[in-house]
């Protein structure tokens, strides 16, 4: 059953035919002309007009009521007329009907009928108050019409209840109060008052807001299975509160015969049966209306019915989601599961999601997801299944638009290209289109060919500002759709016209031809302090046209604007008119106040002077205030014009409180902050005490001391200096000339590490404190001795004699023994050209005076490397090395030394050499105390047969003649060169050398003084550990911050160690690059 409706059969409305008698009244009387319109379909509109269809004028005195009657608060003589006509319009019927004209005659009165107001609507018979009911959401109309002389004035007020949010609207010259969309808040008492000079009349309207029923909860039907329970809820509100009635198939339910439970808001049934299927209705009603809600309850018991077709084919691309549908209707509800291919196990991984409607969603599909799927539905009545086939196609469609976000100058051209990749099987369904700012661009060329689309390209010639925007390439196939964007930015110039208001508070560009500027720069120039120099004042966003500037006092400004975008800066605008800002007192004080002093009994106070733009006015000076800190005393003050002040005869290194304030002719700056400064420093007058030395190892000691008292520093303590010098060697007892070394330790500390000492030596050490003024007195010297250490490597290693299975080695004493020598360790091993090595053999020489040794049992024609290192009780030092090749079987390899060669000799003959034999020739110094050579080369003498060939040629006549001709030709050429040279002038050899430096000599010089690298010190593969395994490291476990600053730059300013502990290195020598195969000693 549906809701109730009202059916109206309209008839043509007509005014009754009647004879209306004329109304005769006197001036000042009140009159009512009644309309009494006929009934018709609303809405109804009433008009008062004359016979010429002219509206009767209305005002506070003459007005029409809501019912259509015409009220005169008091009549005047010009109100007399015989054609007052009432017209009733029915828009829905398209009909207007007219009442018979009425006549009003107004005669003059013999006296003035002044009287207080009297309410005509509501009439006095209704009393002083009345009740009005309005429907919530409707329109409230309250009407008051009064008569009286003079004409009364109407006013409205709400007496009780909350005031409406908006001021109520009045109509008909204040005689009608109107409130649209009435709410509960509009409920209350409203009062209208009619007043004139003779008195007033009032009436109260008690407004009640009611509403028809509306639903809060409607009953919901559905499909239920046999044996389940049913609960239907129904709830409605309204004013008055609505009554609820339940109906079954349109008929009221009799609670006595109904097998379920029924109440005003709920109906329930248990153990539903097929016959319980019906339409259950809930009806809510009050005096303002009735509403009806229906719930269809179907009790079914059927097997699952799969609505999706069997064998559906689905397809998607890799990476997208696939949706396989399985729409089911069943009662009772069916259990749904999906399987793949021949498996009977349901799909249950995270990528598979089963929706409530039976659809299977496969997320982020892969190629292996292709196959056959089955949807199974089962309930207590039966079971059904369908299959679905899924095909996963290649890769998803990809798009790239190039160039990405281009910037193009106005009037230039741009070509956008949309590069795409898609599955070849989707070629026939692949489509490309272009959009600009979301709107599709037509495929055909536009604007006379200026914008051309050709599938994957978009060409725009003569770019304009309107072309700027986001261009989107859209690619779609039958399986996917992707987009790619590129934002086109059009760059152009910007032109400004500058205007400054009278108060100089802002700058405004009036015209601009491009809104693409990134920002605008406001610049200023002032001619009082820096005339002609334009400076940046502020920056604004590119599209701003006004800005508020902060200006400084006592300046003569002019301004200009420069716009900046990706292309560059625009030309500046024309400067504005000049404006001089009035002076003012300083608004800041000097900064960076500091104290400097060069003498102990003076204090120089300095500060950064104010910039010209910070002076704010003429007559700038600085008021300097000072007093000793911690002493109760008044501030000392002095006015200065420069930015420094010197005080003399101050105590040494005493803290002072200092203030500097800016002052000009218009007043003082803000109250300055107090700065703490110290008077002049003097050198410390005390030495550290309790100096002691802790021996760490043979080259490193740790020094401790007690710092000096703070009042003896007489300044800011910078740190401590530790000085030491060697007095004698413990090895030979020789005294040494004192050569002082020192390290600086920054900060207030009481210890430091002294590295790089000579082992087995006696030292003296002192400590002093220092500040910015200088060093204080040194402490008493402390004597300490360093223990023995490992010796340095022997000075040289020479191979005196090679034989096929033996060799004689000779070596020198170590450069520094660093203790009492206990002997030497001699080591040797086989090597070859690929740097592969044999086992290392050791020979211990226990006699410390032994400086040579013969090794036997060597292999013939084999290359060896020899090592010799000196040892003390602390261990062995670094080895000196040499390489050599033993002789072959039956060969002799004894080296020979010639007589002395004079330095002026150009050559030296070597006799008694064997033909066809390889020799190593080395030029060395006469004394030859190390392995360094001046020259070294490998030569091979000629064989006897080869020499015989040359002997035969030298005796031939033709050969002798050829040699003579060559000699004669050479002499002739030398003569010609000599003559030409004498004609060219004479130059000193020195000038020629300066003009034409010998590149070969320069190359040699670069090699000699270039970066030195001792290649022989590089270890052979696998030999480093065995060779140096017995050398013990002498490292300290102390923190590197314990080390100070040295005279040789071994430490940085904070005392951290950056060098090594080792002493000075010997100067390296130049090596030749001869063959490594030798029968004479080679340099190690």
Automatic annotation (TrEMBL):
Organism superkingdom: Eukaryota
InterPro entries assigned to the protein according to its UniProt record, in alphabetical order: FN3_dom (IPR003961), FN3_sf (IPR036116), Ig-like_dom (IPR007110), Ig-like_dom_sf (IPR036179), Ig-like_fold (IPR013783), Ig_I-set (IPR013098), Ig_sub (IPR003599), Ig_sub2 (IPR003598)
Stored PROSITE patterns: FN3 (PS50853), IG_LIKE (PS50835)
Keywords: Cell adhesion, Cell membrane, Developmental protein, Differentiation, Disulfide bond, Extracellular matrix, Glycoprotein, Immunoglobulin domain, Membrane, Neurogenesis, Phosphoprotein, Repeat, Secreted, Transmembrane, Transmembrane helix
Chain ranges of the Ig-like domain: 10-103, 117-208, 213-298, 304-391, 397-483
Location(s) in or outside the cell: Cell membrane; Membrane; Secreted, Extracellular space, Extracellular matrix
Swiss-Prot/TrEMBL GO biological process terms: cell differentiation; cell-cell adhesion; nervous system development
Boundaries of every Fibronectin type-III domain copy: 500-584, 589-682, 687-789, 793-890
Record's subunit section: May interact with L1CAM. May interact with ITGB1/ITGA1 heterodimer and ITGB1/ITGA2 heterodimer as well as with ANK3.
Protein name per its UniProtKB record: Neural cell adhesion molecule L1-like protein
Region Disordered, residue ranges: 569-590, 1064-1084
């Amino acid at each position: 059953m549906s809701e109730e409706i009202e059916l109206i059969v309209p008839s043509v409305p007509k005014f009754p035919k009647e004879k209306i008698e004329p109304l005769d009244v006197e001036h000042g009387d009140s009159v009512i002309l009644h309309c009494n319109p006929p009934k018709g379909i609303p809405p109804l509109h009433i008009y008062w007009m004359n016979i010429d269809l002219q509206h009767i004028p209305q005002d506070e005195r003459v007005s029409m009521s809501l019912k259509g009657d015409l009220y005169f608060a008091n009549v005047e003589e010009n109100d007399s007329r015989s054609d007052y006509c009432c017209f009733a319009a029915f828009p829905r019927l398209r009909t207007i009907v007219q009442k018979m004209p009425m006549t009003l005659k107004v005669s003059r009165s013999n006296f003035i009928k002044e009287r207080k107001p009297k309410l005509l609507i509501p009439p006095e018979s209704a009393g002083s108050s009345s009740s009005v009911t309005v429907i919530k959401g409707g329109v409230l109309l309250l009407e008051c019409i009064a008569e009286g002389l003079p004409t009364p004035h109407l006013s409205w007020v709400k007496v009780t209840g909350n005031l409406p949010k908006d001021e109520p609207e009045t109509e008909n010259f204040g005689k009608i109060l109107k409130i649209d969309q009435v709410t509960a808040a509009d409920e209350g008492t409203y009062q209208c008052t009619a007043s004139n000079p003779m008195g007033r009349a009032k009436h109260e309207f008690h407004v009640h807001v009611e509403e028809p029923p509306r639903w809060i909860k409607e009953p919901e039907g559905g499909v239920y299975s046999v044996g389940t329970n049913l609960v239907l809820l129904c709830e409605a509100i309204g004013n008055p509160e609505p009554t609820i009635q339940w109906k079954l198939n349109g008929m009221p339910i009799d609670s006595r015969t109904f097998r379920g439970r029924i109440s005003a808001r709920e109906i329930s049934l248990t153990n539903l049966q097929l016959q319980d299927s019906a339409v259950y209705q809930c009806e809510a009603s009050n005096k303002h209306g009735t509403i009806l809600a229906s719930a269809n309850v179907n009790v079914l018991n059927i097997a699952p019915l799969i609505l999706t077709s069997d064998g559906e084919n689905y397809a998607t691309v890799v990476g997208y989601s696939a949706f396989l549908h399985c729409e089911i209707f069943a009662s009772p509800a069916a259990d749904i599961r999906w399987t793949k291919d021949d498996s009977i196990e349901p799909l249950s991984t995270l990528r598979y999601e089963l929706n409530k409607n039976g659809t299977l969603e496969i997320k982020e599909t892969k190629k292996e997801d292709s196959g056959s799927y089955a949807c199974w539905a089962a309930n207590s009545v039966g079971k059904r299944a369908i299959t679905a086939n899924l095909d996963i196609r290649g890769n998803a469609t990809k798009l790239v638009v190039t160039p990405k976000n281009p910037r193009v100058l106005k009037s230039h051209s741009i070509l956008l290209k949309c590069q795409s990749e898609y599955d070849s099987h989707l070629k026939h369904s692949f489509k490309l289109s272009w959009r600009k700012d979301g709107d599709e661009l037509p495929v055909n060329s536009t604007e006379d060919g200026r914008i051309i689309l050709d599938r994957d390209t978009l060409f725009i010639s003569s770019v304009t500002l309107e072309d700027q925007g986001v261009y989107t390439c859209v690619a779609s196939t039958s399986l996917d759709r992707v987009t790619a964007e590129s934002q086109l930015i059009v760059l152009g110039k910007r032109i400004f016209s500058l205007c400054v208001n009278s108060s100089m508070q802002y700058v405004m560009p009036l015209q601009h031809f491009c809104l693409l500027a990134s920002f605008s720069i406001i610049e200023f120039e002032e001619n009082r302090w820096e005339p002609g120099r334009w400076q940046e004042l502020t920056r604004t966003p590119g599209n701003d046209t006004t800005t508020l500037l902060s200006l400084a006092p006592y300046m003569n400004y002019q301004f200009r604007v420069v716009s900046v975008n990706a292309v560059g800066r625009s030309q500046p605008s024309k400067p504005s008119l000049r404006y001089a800002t009035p002076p003012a007192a300083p608004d800041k004080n000097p900064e960076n106040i500091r104290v400097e002093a060069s003498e102990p009994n003076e204090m120089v106070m300095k500060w950064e002077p104010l910039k010209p733009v910070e002076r704010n006015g003429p007559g700038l000076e600085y008021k300097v205030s000072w007093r000793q800190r911690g002493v109760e005393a008044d501030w000392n003050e002095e006015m200065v014009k420069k930015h420094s002040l010197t005080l003399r005869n101050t105590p040494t290194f005493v803290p002072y409180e200092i203030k500097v304030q800016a002052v000009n002719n218009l007043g003082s700056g803000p109250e300055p902050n107090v700065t703490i400064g110290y008077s002049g420093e003097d050198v410390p007058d005390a030495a550290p005490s309790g100096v002691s030395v802790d021996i760490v190892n043979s080259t490193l000691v740790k020094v401790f001391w007690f710092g000096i008292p703070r009042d003896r520093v007489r300044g800011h303590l910078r740190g401590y200096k530790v000085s030491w010098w060697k007095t004698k060697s413990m090895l030979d007892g020789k005294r040494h000339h004192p050569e002082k070394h020192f390290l600086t330790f920054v900060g207030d500390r009481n210890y430091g590490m002294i590295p790089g000492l000579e082992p087995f030596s006696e030292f003296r050490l002192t400590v002093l404190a220092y500040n910015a003024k200088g060093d204080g007195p040194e402490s008493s010297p402390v004597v300490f001795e360093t223990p023995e250490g490992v010796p340095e490597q022997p000075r040289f290693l020479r191979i005196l004699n090679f034989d096929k299975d033996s060799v004689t080695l000779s070596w020198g004493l170590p450069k520094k023994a660093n203790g009492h020598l206990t002997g030497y360790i001699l080591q040797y091993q086989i090597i070859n050209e690929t740097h592969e090595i044999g086992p290392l053999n050791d020979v211990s020489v226990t006699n410390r005076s032994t400086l040579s040794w013969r090794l036997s049992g060597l292999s013939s024609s084999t290359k060896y490397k020899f090592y010799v290192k000196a040892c003390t009780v602390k261990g062995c030092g670094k080895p000196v090395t040499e390489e050599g090749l033993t002789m072959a079987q039956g060969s002799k390899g004894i080296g020979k030394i010639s007589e002395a060669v004079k330095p002026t000799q150009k050559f030296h003959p070597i006799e008694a050499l064997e033909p066809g034999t390889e020799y190593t020739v080395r030029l060395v110094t006469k004394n030859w105390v190390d392995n360094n050579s001046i020259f070294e080369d490998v030569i091979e003498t000629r064989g006897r047969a080869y020499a015989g060939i040359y002997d035969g040629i030298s005796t031939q006549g033709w050969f002798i003649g050829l040699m003579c001709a060559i000699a004669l030709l050479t002499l002739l050429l030398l003569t010609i060169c000599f003559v030409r040279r004498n004609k060219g002038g004479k130059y000193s050899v020195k000038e020629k050398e300066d003009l034409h430096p010998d590149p070969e000599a320069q190359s040699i010089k670069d090699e000699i003084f270039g970066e030195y690298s001792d290649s022989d010190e590089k270890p052979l593969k696998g030999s480093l550990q065995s060779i140096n395994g017995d050398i013990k490291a002498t490292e300290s476990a102390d923190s590197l911050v314990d080390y100070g600053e040295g005279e040789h730059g071994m430490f940085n300013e904070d005392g951290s160690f950056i060098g090594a502990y080792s002493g000075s290195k010997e100067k390296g020598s130049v090596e030749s690059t001869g063959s490594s195969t030798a029968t004479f000693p080679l340099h190690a």
